[in-house]
TrEMBL record:
PROSITE patterns: HTH_ARSR_2. InterPro entries: ArsR-like_HTH, HTH_ArsR_DNA-bd_dom, HTH_MetalResp_TranReg, WH-like_DNA-bd_sf, WH_DNA-bd_sf. This is Putative transcriptional regulator, ArsR family. It comes from the Bacteria. Pfam families: HTH_20 (PF12840). SMART domains: HTH_ARSR. One of its GO terms (molecular function) is DNA-binding transcription factor activity.
Length: 115
């Protein structure tokens, strides 16, 4: 993986620093849950621009930052693109079944509400 340009490295919590309450807070917001759902569907990293959100760019940046700081996603620069990926391995190891349960509950709610 190419190294990021100086000043372009984003901080992420180490796995042992990821807290359940921070993860749950990050997943509780519908916009952030939409990001997580899309990344889970893709199964690979994706640029921010590949995840359409009905919010402003600055608000979108905020939501991605909350997810990164909670340890839900990783973000790395590849050229000018900020690439995002779920930290599925870390989350599954720390909180077995949590991500799958949240995504399943989200899908059930969207079916129930017609969203």
């Amino acid at each position: 993986m190419p190294s990021a340009a100086p000043g372009r490295v984003l901080e992420h919590p180490k796995p042992e620093e990821i807290r359940l309450e921070a993860v749950l807070h990050a997943l509780a917001d519908p916009v952030r849950l939409q990001v997580v759902r899309r990344l889970a569907e893709l199964g690979t990293e994706a640029p921010c621009s590949a995840i359409e959100l009905a919010v402003s760019k600055s608000t979108s940046t905020y939501h991605f930052r909350v997810l990164r700081e909670a340890g839900v996603i990783t973000q790395v620069y590849r050229g000018t693109a900020k690439m995002n990926a779920l930290r599925r391995d870390d989350l599954d190891r720390l909180f077995p079944g949590l991500l799958d349960a949240v995504l399943a509950a989200d899908a059930a709610q969207r079916r129930r509400t017609g969203a």
